[in-house]
Design goal:
It contains nine helices and no strands. By secondary structure, it is an all-alpha fold.
């Protein structure tokens, strides 16, 4: 198969897959998890049911793929924030702030309960923890972060503390939570 043809087919497949994921997420947001069927997804996406089943065996598989894509996007967003060329302490603050906003905007629903139990979530959490651990290690080396607690423990502290952002009522409350978390990272006097 010629390279251009192969690339065109792959782009088409990615486009159809993305349309399926986006349509399913929209249908579930509109109608609820239990009421969305493969037939509805096929109709709303504009493809045949047989084509839909070539991509996914069922609604749960579509949701899992959608969630994996969302998690990857969030990790990419956090890495992009953390790779900005500013002092380590500022990058750490920016990453923790962005993470808290992501957690705050996530809706804890039946859908979240279903999706947050997969192996992809554990891998993403470990990746995020390692990324934050690296920022903390860098901050400790520059004196911006305490060095009397191992960076891995501090990373766990940050992630657990900022998980509370999901239950906060406002963006101001999220910013205060980030400030309190950052205060706990400062070197002792």
């Amino acid at each position: 198969m010629p390279k251009l043809w192969h690339e065109t087919i792959e782009a088409h497949r990615r486009g159809v897959r993305d349309a399926i994921l986006d349509t399913t997420a929209a249908l579930i947001a509109e109608r609820g998890l239990a009421s969305v069927t493969m037939s509805q997804i096929a109709e709303a996406t504009g493809i045949g049911r047989a084509t839909l089943y070539k991509y996914f065996p069922g609604v749960e598989a579509i949701l899992l793929a959608w969630h994996q894509r969302q998690v990857a996007r969030h990790l990419d967003q956090l890495v992009a924030v953390g790779e900005r060329a500013v002092p380590a302490g500022e990058r750490l603050q920016a990453v923790l702030s962005a993470y808290a906003v992501i957690v705050h905007e996530r809706h804890d629903t039946e859908l979240a309960a279903l999706l947050h139990r997969g192996e992809h979530v554990a891998r993403a959490q470990e990746h995020l923890r390692g990324f934050i651990r690296g920022l903390l290690t860098e901050g400790a080396a520059t004196g911006e972060v305490r060095n009397d607690v191992p960076p891995d423990e501090l990373a766990a502290y940050c992630l657990h503390a900022l998980a509370a952002a999901g239950g906060l009522p406002s963006g101001d409350a999220v910013r205060r939570l980030v400030a309190v978390t950052l205060a706990g990272l400062r070197p002792p006097p």
